[in-house]
Fold:
Amino acid sequence: MTTPILIIIFIIFFAYHFNKKSNLGKPNKKGREQTQKYYEEKYITPYHIDVYKPVFKKSLKILNKLIPTKDIGILEVGCGMGEFAKYLRKESYTNYLGFDISTSGIDLAKKRIPEWDEKFIVHSAYELEDIDFDYKVVVAIEVLEHINDLKFISQLKPGTHLIGSVPNYWSSNDEHLRVYPNKLNIWWRFKKYMIFKTFYKHKWNRYRFVHIFSAQII
Ligand SMILES: C[S@@+](CC[C@H](N)C(=O)[O-])C[C@H]1O[C@@H](n2cnc3c(N)ncnc32)[C@H](O)[C@@H]1O
Structure:
């Protein structure tokens, strides 16, 4: 009698864990970046950004600790609808430029923070040399997994601080080109380009998490 009960308990336990693990999503087999048109449509119906609050807050905390001066030049890649810019403005940072490949994302950012409407531009992550802005900090929150991260990072000047966050899970709509499963993987991938200063793991649940880090470009 006890054997069937044990088997049932085992099946329930296994199914529960398998289901949680499947939250990590299916790998992006094509490994191709989503198009600009795709990102245009993404912001036509804006998504709920509030879930990312802990990531924005932690990134801000890292920035505050790293650089206490409020007029430091901050460049944000893939700023989307400008949520992190909202945090920066509230914290009295003044010298900011955010860019994104999505016009609808940038339009939304301008609408959400009208006081900063000139601080948002449509631009590609691969043409940094065309950006006329003096920055000491680059922010990349949930962006590096969407782009050729090494190509982007190789454009950054030595001495620049990078604050970023990267997930360990795939996206349901093939937005992620890769995932970053652990700290060692992140360090190994970027070690040629930067020296890491801080690492923080934010867990959404037992399996899904993001690493938030700061580093200095060498
Ligand atoms: C997951 S969203 C993150 C948005 C924002 N950082 C946030 O946390 O709310 C990824 C962003 O990267 C932008 N993006 C994707 N490819 C890009 C590229 N090649 N150049 C600039 N931005 C890009 C997308 O338009 C999108 O807004």
Remarks:
- DSSP finds seven helices and seven strands in the chain.
- The mean pLDDT is 93.
- Helices lie at 2-22, 36-42, 53-66, 83-90, 103-112, 149-153, 183-190.
